[in-house]
C-alpha cells in the first residue's frame, strides 16, 4: 500500500531557517516554524506574537 503518501508534497511546509517541518507558518512571505518565527518576529519588531 502507499504508506508514504506525503513524501514530497507540494504544500509541505518546511522552515526556511532550521529546516524543520513541524508547525510552520507562512507569514510575511517566510516559511518559519513557530520557534524561528518567534526569533525572527522579535528581531523584526513583531512583539505581538509570543
Ligand atoms: Zn525553524
Topology:
Layout: E1 24-27, E2 30-33, H1 34-44
Antiparallel strand pairs: 1-2
This protein binds zinc ion (ZN).
Residues 15, 17-18, 20, 32-33, 35-36 line the site of zinc ion.
Question: What would your notes on this structure say?
Answer:
The protein has one helix at residues 34-44, and strands spanning 24-27, 30-33. With 50 residues, it is α+β, with helices and mostly antiparallel strands. The mean pLDDT is 76. It has one domain (13-50). A hairpin with a 2-residue loop joins β1 and β2 (30-33). Strands 1-2 form a two-stranded antiparallel sheet. Helices cover 22% and strands 16% of the residues. It is built from 1 helix and 2 strands. The termini are far apart. The structure holds zinc ion. Residues 15, 17-18, 20, 32-33, 35-36 line the site of zinc ion.
Rounded to the nearest angstrom, the radius of gyration is 13 Å
Q: Which term fits the overall shape?
A: elongated
Q: How many helical stretches?
A: 1
The small molecules bound here are:
zinc ion
Low-confidence parts, pLDDT < 50 over ≥5 residues?
A: none
Number of extended strands: 2
Taking the sheet with the most strands, its summary is: 2 strands, antiparallel
How much of the sequence lies in strands comes to 15-25%
Number of domains: 1
Mean pLDDT: 76
Structural class: alpha+beta
N to C succession of SSEs: EEH
| Major β-sheet strand ordering | 1-2
How much helicity do the residues have?
A: 10-25%
The separation of the N and C termini measures 42 Å
Amino acid at each position: 500500500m502507499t504508506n508514504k503518501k506525503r513524501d514530497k508534497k507540494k504544500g509541505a511546509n518546511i522552515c526556511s531557517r532550521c529546516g524543520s517541518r513541524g508547525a510552520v507558518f507562512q507569514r510575511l512571505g517566510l516559511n518559519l516554524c513557530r520557534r524561528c518565527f518567534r526569533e525572527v518576529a522579535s528581531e523584526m519588531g513583531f512583539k505581538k506574537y509570543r
